[in-house]
């Protein structure tokens, strides 16, 4: 694999907060997946995201999901690997997946809002 192929492949599997926000704004076929525990999701999460804890993600729990959409997994941030575990499980189940770089931490640093018990103000996608 040469450098160009490496970076093209990397962009196929990762996204950042800005690109995710723009994709949501433009109503692209994206489902944002919080791969953390239910308790963490209830405290704070990205607006319009759905909670699929990586530890419970299976063929049964994802059976009603649309495989034509792209699923973007996230967790707390770079010190957390729940998004990677979630992305791996979704990939093994036949979904197209990207991982959100920096997770919830970088989402908030970039000025985007969160929801939950400890919600933070910020920009909210108009077409979540």
From TrEMBL:
InterPro entries: GlpE_sulfurtransferase (IPR050229), Rhodanese-like_dom (IPR001763), Rhodanese-like_dom_sf (IPR036873). SMART domains: RHOD. It holds the Pfam family Rhodanese. It comes from the Bacteria. GO terms for molecular function: transferase activity. Residues 26-116 form the Rhodanese domain. Keywords: Transferase. Gene3D superfamilies: Rhodanese-like domain (3.40.250.10). The keyword Transferase applies. The keyword Transferase applies. This is Rhodanese-related sulfurtransferase. The lineage of its organism: Bacteria, Pseudomonadati, Thermodesulfobacteriota, Desulfobulbia, Desulfobulbales.
